[in-house]
Amino acid sequence: MSVIDQSLLTARVYEHLRERIVNKTFPAGARLAEETISAELEVSRTPVREALHRLTQEGFVVYAPRRGCRVKPLSRREAGEIFELRSILEPLALREAWPRISPEDIARLESRLAEMGRTSAGRQSQAALAADDDLHDLFCRRCSNRYLREYLRHLIQLSRPYRSFGAGAPAHLRRLRRQRQEILAALRDGKKKTAGILLLKHIREGQREILTRLQAYAN
């Protein structure tokens, strides 16, 4: 199997497992055994292992020695605390990053946003999350405060499992696209205050939507 074929297979296994975690086919605390999953999907253990590693990095799965991988429990309290901190720290990171955000940075993100619009319907959810990651990572990369940059990156990583809930809904994708377009336009036009307001709105609206979805998920 070529490297490309292996990568595509891993991506399909990842998407299959993530979907089963999100829709609670694999409930919180469920053990995810490589051998069982590989037998069920009729694939080797390598793409399963790589998919589980990615899910662990993204916070969907936790790994413990001698216990293996298990589905991480998600909570409204944790999500609320994560996004509350992001709503405070990320606009601050934007202000710190402002002098170092270049026209090339903005053009690259606008290109990614246009590329997302050409993505197939089946992959738009992942493309939207990737484009959103790029936007928030820009503020981290250009932020001059090392401690703020590192802590904010950690918060963004912790928030990723929560952001995936409902990420494929067309209305959600349209909202994300519109908000990113507005933030990038403010950055391009040199409107620092407007960009900060729009970024805060983006985070707050995402927080409310996620908490609502988690409430339904728990029921």
Order of helices and strands: HEHHEEHHHHHH
Please identify the structural class as seen in this structure.
mainly alpha
> Any low-confidence stretches, pLDDT <50, length ≥5?
none
Strand order of the biggest β-sheet: 1-3-2
- The average pLDDT value, as a whole number, equals 87
Largest sheet: 3 strands, antiparallel
Measure the end-to-end span: 43 Å
Number of helical segments with 4 or more residues: 9
Oligomeric status:
single chain
As a percent range, the share of strand residues is: under 5%
Radius of gyration: 18 Å
Strand tally, please?
3
Protein architecture, described:
- This protein has helices at 3-22, 34-41, 45-57, 76-97, 103-117, 124-142, 146-163, 170-188, 192-218; strands at residues 31-32, 61-64, 68-71.
- With 219 residues, the chain is mostly helical.
- Strands 1-3-2 form a three-stranded antiparallel sheet.
- The longest helix is centred in the last third of the chain and has 27 residues, at 192-218.
- The model has no long low-confidence stretch (mean pLDDT 87).
SSE layout and pairing:
Blueprint: H1 3-22, E1 31-32, H2 34-41, H3 45-57, E2 61-64, E3 68-71, H4 76-97, H5 103-117, H6 124-142, H7 146-163, H8 170-188, H9 192-218
Antiparallel strand pairs: 1-3, 2-3
Helix pairs in contact: 1-3, 2-3, 4-6, 4-7, 4-9, 5-6, 5-8, 6-7, 6-8, 8-9
Task: Give the tags.
74% helix; 5% strand; mainly alpha; 9 helices; 219 residues; 3 strands; three-stranded antiparallel sheet
